Amino acid sequence: MEWFKINWQGAYPVDTAHTKSGASGYGIYAMYQMSGKTPKLLYIGETYRQSFAGRLKQHKKQWLFRVNGKVVIHFGKIETAKNVHMTQSKVLDVEGVLIHVLVPPYNTVSKHGYSGRDIIVFNTGKIGTLPKLLGNQALVTTIKEVMGKK
Question: Which of 3, 9, 23, 54 could form a disulfide with 50 if both were Cys (CB 3.0 to 4.6 A apart)?
Answer without folding.
Answer: 54
